[in-house]
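As promised in the previous annual report, we have extended the structural survey to additional targets. Below is the entry for Phosphogluconate dehydratase.
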Amino acid sequence: MAADRRIEEITARIRERSAATREPYLDRIRQKAGETPKRSALNCGNLAHGFAACGPVDKERLTGDRTLNLGIITSYNDMLSAHQPFETYPEIIRQTAREAGATAQVAGGVPAMCDGVTQGQVGMELSLFSRDVIAMSAAVGLSHDMYDAAVYLGVCDKIVPGLVIAALSFGHLPAIFVPAGPMTTGLPNDEKARIRQLYAEGKVGRDALLEAESKSYHGPGTCTFYGTANSNQMLMEIMGLHTPGSSFVNPNTPLRDALTREATRRALSITALGNEYTPAGLVVDERAVVNGVVGLHATGGSTNHTLHLVAMAAAAGIRLTWADISELSEVTPLLARVYPNGLADVNHFQAAGGMGFLIRELLSRGLLHDDVRTAWGTGLGAYTVEARLGADGQVLRVPAPETSGDPKVLTTADQPFSSNGGLRVLNGNVGKAVIKVSAVKPEKRVVEAPARVFHDQDALQRAFKAGELTGDFVAVVRFQGPKSNGMPELHKLTPSLGVLQDRGQKVALVTDGRMSGASGKVPAAIHVTPEALDGGPIGKIRDGDLIRLDGETGTLEVLVDPAEFARRPNAEADLSANETGLGRELFAVFRRAVGTADTGASVF
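The corresponding structure token record, generated without further manual editing, is:
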């Protein structure tokens, strides 16, 4: 089915805007593709270094000119549940490659930090910048120029966007992303949130809180709520960088391993030495980017992707803007309710029909481009399936179910949960910001109240514990942007503000920092740009100023006399404490070089 007229118009606008950067990017891919494979041009000493550690069979194959060699970029570590399953993947991939007459090598590892561990901690100030470090780390691994294709092992918040940026920087190489899958369902997410809120109120102790958290995050795999990690997996599938149906299969299962073997074989089949050459830079075009944004809206995905998608697109020479994202939100119906937008987790989403059902529903309304090139082949229709394990141990695909297994979790385009998407861009005299409305009840989406201004999240927490946050108010937490301190997530504030909202107070958050991919029930205008340290109007707000946040109309305004507001000097903050400790001194160059939130908060 042809894409909806509005989808076509937005895509055409992006294509036209991007022409000056996309065409030179494609020229670089064509030039580099003509040089592959590079191993045959390496000096003997170079090549010997490249396969010195290999076994006899792999070494013999790499000595020749025509054996395919697959590069593995891995984010494995065994501290983080989402990445621990990757420990066994390289050997699975190597063995599968050998069976196909090819070779595979771990080209490099990339750091993988967890926002769940660093939430509210100093380490969170490195989190956003880790995305660009990951891109550079992957580039270092691939710079040996020994590979005909690459597979990328990554799951969580900054890891997948960083890997995508790297894959697009090496856009002449075919790329397939291989997920680990979500952990099995533990303590229900709403119960976890209830215990967190009770702890914030002082009604339960740390033992009860730790017990609840441990029952929620209890085994290998991705956290089961629909935050940035699972939004990443949705994006990789709907943008054609996964094999069909592979996003939400649990780790350490026969099907998961079969999907990894299949991804390896597919990566080997789409190199420049075969008849299906599919470089990553051609998979990710304007249509794929639009498909990703539509998928984000249709599932109520992570606010972090208003940064990451812009940066990922830019790596392919595509200029995506917040205005594009906002306009696509008005076109896209909300079809999924997964916590924090509902009570279900991603395992329930998968059981209800998963990505195959979602993609088919969106295609049926022309809300996705079907005529795309994917790592699997031509056309997104190939992704309207469910992956199962065949009797022979191989992956078997069947059509996605015709009806949802749970209409409260996954619905049809004819009966959406909302007529528009879960993310919205706010505009006004405070600047531009992002809000996730899918998790906020309609009656809570408009707040007009006096400002309470803080220069860090700890100051707000102290005010809450002291009982000072009375009446209706809008919490303004500034000097949290990328230039200030790396733009940390402020998800730690959610339980406290949630308590006050439940008490009947009208509350909202306005910040130039980030919230989490799990942004919850309190309306939050985040990623405010320009940020306070960059002279943004958020730096002019004073305690008591009346602020109106309207998540329905998409406005964020300080209701003071415009002339007076313009005359006000911007506040200043002592940020020296954010400059050292836990490696922050190493990232000073990032804080100086980083771009604005609406351009992806990137150092590139």
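The chain has three domains: 5-184+219-399, 185-218, 423-599. Residues 185-218 form one domain. These points will be discussed at the next consortium meeting with the crystallography subgroup.
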